[in-house]
């Protein structure tokens, strides 16, 4: 599903080679947070729903999916005021069209 993923030095990405084995190209983000402002912007958006320092285990799978849906439904200037959800649906439509032509 994902062609690329950008990881940092966090422990959650210790097994990044598994992502590569699934066919995703893995890129490493610069070490300092100020060197990756878009990532920090998205962290800020996430913290509107899950305060920084909160144990993520307090949230069940449905909570996380609802938060992700909410976040992905907000238009972004960097995306030409489209939502990530809209662009992802367009991408999937293109993929399915290519697969059906082949």
**H/E topology pattern:** EHEHHH
- Describe the strand arrangement of the main beta sheet, using strand numbers: 1-2
Helix fraction by DSSP (H/I, runs of at least 4) = 40-55%
Number of helices: 4
The overall pLDDT, averaged over residues, is: 85
Q: Strand pairing plus helix content: what structural class?
A: mainly alpha
**What is the makeup of the main sheet?**
2 strands, parallel
Based on CA inertia axes, which overall geometry fits?
globular
Q: How far is the first residue's CA from the last residue's CA?
A: 18 Å
Which percent range describes the beta-strand content?
5-15%
Number of strands: 2
Unreliable residue stretches = none
Radius of gyration: 16 Å
Describe the structure.
This protein has four helices and two strands; from the N terminus they run βαβααα. A two-stranded parallel sheet has the order 1-2. β1, α1 and β2 form a beta-alpha-beta unit. 45% of the residues lie in helices and 8% in strands. The chain is globular. It is mainly α.
């Amino acid at each position: 599903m994902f062609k690329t993923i950008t990881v940092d030095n966090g422990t959650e990405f210790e097994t990044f080679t598994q992502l590569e084995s699934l066919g995703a190209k893995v890129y490493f983000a610069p070490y300092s947070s100020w060197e990756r402002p878009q990532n920090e912007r998205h962290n800020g958006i996430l913290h509107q729903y899950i305060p920084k320092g909160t144990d993520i285990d307090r949230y069940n799978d449905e909570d996380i999916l609802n938060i992700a849906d909410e976040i992905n439904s907000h238009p972004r200037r960097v995306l030409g005021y489209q939502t990530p959800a809209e662009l992802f649906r367009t991408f999937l439509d293109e993929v399915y069209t290519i697969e059906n032509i082949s």
